[in-house]
Amino acid sequence: MIGLSRKVILKYSEKYDRKYLNTEDHTIEENLKRKLESSNYITRNQFIEIGLWKSKRPKREYCSPENTEDFVKEVTGIAFDSKNERLKIEILQLLQGCSYPLASVILHFKYPDLYPILDFRALWSLGIERPKNYDFKFWWDYTSKIRQIAKENNVSVRELDKALWYYSKENQKSSFKQGASRRT
Question: Of the candidates 77, 94, 98, 168, which lies 20 to 30 Å from 86 by C-alpha distance?
Answer without folding.
Answer: 168
